[in-house]
Design a protein that fits this description.
Layout lengths: L2 H20 L6 H8 L40 H6 L11 H18 L9 E6 L6 H13 L6 E5 L7 H5 L7 H6 L5 H4 L1 E2 L5 E4 L8 H5 L2 H13 L4 E5 L7 H7 L4 E7 L5 H10 L5 E7 L17
Parallel strand pairs: 1-5, 1-6, 2-4, 2-5, 6-7
Antiparallel strand pairs: 3-4
Helix pairs in contact: 4-5
């Protein structure tokens, strides 16, 4: 290759590098690496497709690139506060303090001096529908996302009645069920990055007639292992179906490191709670949230729930 050709090739490579660095809709890094044959340690995350102009380029020199822009989905904090959801803008309130108390032992079991196996994999569930588990799952995720040292992945595994998109104001998107049915999809491709830097969401995905059965499948077990391995440094909160309504939820529970059981005050009987606890006795750590309770002064005793 002549000197002129080398200079032209270098200029073309530098031009493509500048384009990639200035492009907001970057590809996920795994897809970029496999398409371009890129070097190691490229740092980029998004769910957008690769820009067409980049498909024919060589970016072998793009090593150790960091600080690339990531497209994030904005959350409406005013709307969230209206429905009792914690936001980063909130001052010290009853509900923020309640979830600080709730999250602390969970974080210790996940990342403390003596962490338990899969302690960062936390299932939020209830005995029956309507007890407020999704409300608690979102608030717990929000509270943990405000920690200095923790990031959160919120997974909507209540595949027959997904509530997280409604609570957060998200559009339906490819998610958990799509990953289970399409082995060509990867987790980063369907993750939703939110305007809260430390919070990402994996929705339930495209509805399927055998959605609940997919939760108990071998594919689901493998997917959970992949997520735990890929995101071992973050808390993974799984909003599951109610335990007494589907046998698949109990199979899912057996794969968790920690379980948070939401109990509706004044509605869920002690017998129901005992039966639910019996179903998940194999889990090493089980915490209970007594939800919708009121004190004698009619102020929140623990956690209140606004239905959607």
């Amino acid at each position: 290759m002549s000197m002129i050709e080398k200079i032209a090739a270098k200029q073309k490579e530098e031009a493509m590098r500048d384009k990639l660095l200035s492009e907001n809709n970057l590809s996920i890094i795994e897809k970029a690496a496999s398409t371009f044959g890129a070097g190691k340690n490229i740092s980029a995350t998004t769910v957008e497709e690769i820009v067409p102009e980049a498909k024919t380029a060589s970016i072998k020199g793009l090593n150790n690139v960091s600080g690339l822009k990531t497209k994030r989905l904005p959350l409406d904090f005013a709307r969230l506060r209206h429905y009792g959801i914690i936001t980063p803008e909130d001052k010290k309130t009853t509900i923020t303090e309640q979830f600080r108390v709730i999250k602390r032992p969970l974080l210790m079991s996940a990342f403390g001096p003596n962490p338990i196996k899969n302690g960062n994999l936390i299932m939020i569930t209830s005995s029956l529908a309507g007890e407020g588990k999704s409300f608690c799952a979102v608030n717990l995720a929000m509270s943990i996302a405000m920690e200095m040292d923790n990031t959160v992945l919120l997974v909507d595994a209540d595949v027959s009645r997904p509530m997280i998109p409604k609570i957060l104001g998200l559009e339906e998107n490819k998610g958990l069920l799509d990953l289970l049915l399409n082995d060509k999809l990867s987790v980063p491709e369907v993750l939703i990055k939110t305007s809260i830097e430390k919070l990402s969401v994996l929705t339930a995905g495209t509805q399927h007639p055998n959605a609940n059965e997919l939760l108990a499948s071998q594919s689901m077990g493998l997917l959970l292992k992949e997520i735990v391995k890929r995101y071992e440094d973050r808390i993974i909160i799984v909003d599951s179906p109610p335990l007494l309504l589907t046998s698949e939820a109990r199979v899912l529970a057996n794969q968790m490191g920690q379980i948070v059981l939401v109990v509706e005050a004044g509605e869920t009987s002690q017998q129901t709670v005992r039966e639910t606890l019996r179903q998940i006795e194999s889990c090493e750590v089980v915490n209970l949230i007594y939800n919708k309770a009121r004190s004698f002064s009619d102020k929140d005793l623990y956690v209140t729930y606004e239905p959607y």
